[in-house]
Amino acid sequence: MTTPGHHRLAAAFVDLTGGSNAPAGGSPFDVTALLRKLANHSAGLLGASAAYVLLAEAHGGSAVVPADPGTRLDGLAYELAGPARTCCDTGIPVPALALSSSAVQSRWPRFAAWAQGRGYAQVAVVPLRAHTETVGALALLAAPHRPLPDAELPVGQSLADVTALMIVRERERAESRALTDQLQHALTSRVAIEQAKGMLAVQHTLTPDEAFALLRGHARSRGRLLADVAHEVIDGNADLA
């Protein structure tokens, strides 16, 4: 028998893996919107008072995305020295811990002060993992009267893993598109150079190697790209005499 909680969980998975998050008509992938959905769904399903995601960016930096877009990010800078940063670096989840506990106070004092100053009493963190890669961490904060249920944290982990898989797949698609574009550009340039060589060989009674040397020498002497000069030869706009 299904319950409203099961329906909400199913709806969360649909939302994270497709639904309204799926790019339409060539629209760019919105990772911020995806992470905000993860934070919102996780907070709602697990009863957290607040949630946010720390994303490890490709260039080595980090981005913090809260469930509430109105949350000021400057305060969340303290999280870079907190449990989500540790979880992101190690890939190891942080179980529900009281912010007043020695485990939190000794390891992440700045974060503990920041979170307690905003009325939170407990924190738990799960990594965003895709296969062996950790791309971020989902942090959940609880108010004193709403403790985080340890037994439900696997739900948050499942949502985080699905989100990580979406992010990794999008990065792989972006890399594939970039590689395809590079290969296509290289092929187009090579075809243009070969065509220009043939035209120069006929026009100046040269061998293919001599025609290429003429084309390359003209490009080098003017600091031009070889492919650009080749296109000018094809268009009849280059004087290589």
From TrEMBL:
Keyword Transcription regulation among record annotations: yes
This protein's UniProt keywords: Kinase, Transcription, Transcription regulation, Transferase
Single GO term (MF): RNA binding
Coiled coil (residue ranges): none
Signal peptide, first to last residue: none
The UniProt record lists the keyword Transferase: yes
Record-linked InterPro entries: ANTAR (IPR005561), CheY-like_superfamily (IPR011006), GAF (IPR003018), GAF-like_dom_sf (IPR029016), WH-like_DNA-bd_sf (IPR036388)
SUPFAM superfamilies associated with the record: CheY-like, GAF domain-like
Span of domain ANTAR: 173-234
Gene3D superfamilies named in the record: 3.30.450.40, Winged helix-like DNA-binding domain superfamily/Winged helix DNA-binding domain
Pfam families per record: ANTAR, GAF_2
Protein name (database record): GAF and ANTAR domain-containing protein
Source organism of this protein record: Streptomyces coryli
